[in-house]
Amino acid sequence: MLELLDWLDRPSVLHGLHLVGSLTLFVIGLYGLLGKRHLLKILMSLALMELAVNLLFIALATTSGETAPILSDGLTAFTGMADPVPQALILTAIVIGMAVLALGVSLAIRYHRLSASADIRALADAQD
Amino acid sequence: MEFSASPIWFIALPMLAAFSSPLWVRWRVLDQLLLGIPLGLLLLALGLFATVQQAPLIETIVIAPPLGIHLHLDSAALLLVALFCFAVTLVAAFLWHGATETHLRGRQPFVLILLLLAGGNGLVLTGDLFNLYVFLEIAGISAYVLTAVRDDRPALAAGLKYLIIGSVAGVFFLLAVVLIYLQTGQLNMAAVAQAFAEIPPAMQGLIAVLALIGLGIKSELFPFNFWVPDVYRGSDPAITALFSGLLVKAFLFVLVHLAVLIWIDPEIARIWLMTLGALTLMVAELAALRQDEMRRMLAYSSLGQIGLILLAFGFLHESTAAGAFFHLISHTLAKLLLFLVAALLLRRVLSLHLDALTGAGRVYPLTVGLFVVGALCILGLPPLSGFMSKLWILQGFAAAQTFWPIALILVAALIEAGYYFRWIRVLYAPAAASAVTDSKTSKTAPESWATYAPLLLLVGLMLLLGIAPFVIEGALVDAARALLDRDLLIQSVLGVAAQ
Amino acid sequence: MSQRQRVPLRKRVRVKTLLLTLLSAWLLALFLTLLLGQARDWPTATVGDALLTRNAETASANAVTSVVVSYRGFDTLGEVTVLFLAATGIGLLFSAPRPRSELSAAESESTPAPPNEMMITGVRLLFPVLVLFGVYIVLHGHLSPGGGFQGGVVIATAFLLRMLADPNFRLDHVRLGWLEALSGSGFVLLGLIGLILTTTATFLGNFLPHPVASLGQLVSAGVIPLIYALVGVKVGAEVGAIFQDMREAA
Fold it and tell me: What is the ipTM metric for this complex?
């Protein structure tokens, strides 16, 4: 049992698992984006893809044993800590993703009000 | 304390003005500021040309590259920034006197247009990959909202479509940036350029494809540009003028810049860029032949010109790149004119469909006359700048003994002549002139001369650049050199770090 | 009879779904083989590690905060701009004057049930605690996990709960607009002061004294907590405005 845990803790195994998980999420999002017709489902798929990218970055940028890059709980030097840049970047990416999602949902609501349709195909044939 | 003419102003000033917009609403200076800020930045940019010619201006933010973010103002970036400020100034001047489009007046459009400018400038200036992603989203979101700003059904549909496709592009580009950081540990473009060769080739390919999908969608290249005509059709022509004149040019520049900088093997980059450019050119021009709606036709024509510019940039040769910069400027002038003419027509007619416009040239001689000038500039007829810019590109290819792009460009010009002359013929047809007058005369009074002033300025510039291209020749050649000289850029950025 | 019940083959096997599934699976396999097989190991020397070793210069105990607000503060300015744009766009879509017919249709569509007693009492208890918690997170951004974005969202959530519990509670759009304007332009102006002062001479430079000795105290790290507080106000006001707009539209 312990051996299994040790094996799971090895960076290559851990990163591999994170990679499989987040890429699966990414592809599920891509599938929803291409295959679904409801606008809200499409926006959800977009959010899923974004979150998958964020997860991938955070998961691969840290290895087990590193602490959060904050001086507290008796830590006095910035050594043996996780890389702070990916965390800062993902914080930015999350906020941007949220902003786009909120805007997209609002547009979809307005569009639904005006056209009583939430089908992506209705957008496709919006001709003259 | 000192005042420094740093590139940061091109981004910080529009942001500051946009953030403090409630104050301007209270003081009733929105219109003045919307015109004044881009005009001031344009003057600043013109003043910087001499400085930048000697050495690129590098503005570090907080910590020197490669650790932090920096802005990189070289001749190529400065040329584009000046062009963007000019485009926004012109559209602002046009909107000031066009009181009919109420949805384009007021606080929100003011904020959106200024932040679109900030986003475009940031895209061109930034030297950091993640910062590039942030500016991509700033420019993107302001474009989505500007598309939907009219708040009726076609505008909302266009805005939604733009938002979905644009966010997909954003996700793909973000994934490329994440993979680059995971592989090299760098975000600064120059540092990434140095470290990129050490990545395994398969990963290089994956990163390049992801970034190409992201930027290809944003810069409206062929396999990824099916959505463009719908968006251009749904939004206001005055806004579309900004998309075609500012936004696409910024993304196109970023694409070429990254390809030159990061992709080590110029042969492969050349094949990819030129193929994409040639495909975009031909497919868009052929599609434009069949369009019966003015905005759609202009959208396809714009796509074709984007393809032509990419074809010339993608050759990665100084002479064609200078021609490409020239054509980029000339196309911005012409498309601003054409889309603003479309906006003028739309104030008076209900539809921009080909049938509805029959004989419009006899009712509105000046407006339609300006349309003809813009169309001739796109076609490349001699006294106008479009002729000189196409000539430069052709000369560049001829000097390098590469002839297939020349044939392609000439065929494309023939197709362009086909559809633009079809439109001009219908506009001046004697037939149903009564139909046009009926729908309009009741609607608005004739426009004042102030409305036409920006359009006439555009015509004047086209003539000036067509007759005397040597005015900007030095700037264009400098820009081409700055864009293509990878080693110089890396050295100038990382040299600062070594101080 | 049986003829009518028979579903055509192409409807039983959804070709499009099948193709999409296959495409997705193929992409996943491609990604995985590339990333698992070809990727280099996580490089030892990254920009982040270099920044970590120099982090003591900022006198901020939280290295992520010094990256977010100082080293990559320009990204954060862009991020705040994105949020501002989204809030502006949503306000534009939902607060424009509506034709009467559309308005009445929207109102008949949604007649929200009045909030129950548990909700009202619970929110009355929770509201001050949540606001206090949000302010704490904002102000301690340079010392502990948290900061302007997280704290701002917590404060906005407190106001969202107020809206849910009290149908008559409204956030004043004009006042929110001024808050946004003040905090946003404050951020840019702090950056410009850093640019103009010769001691720092870079945009967003840390021009206030930030001695390393004070690391870990509430008043430390110079301009960083100031900027993060402005970000907190801006995020709170914007997310609050988004909630308010969406509620009015519902």
Answer: 0.92
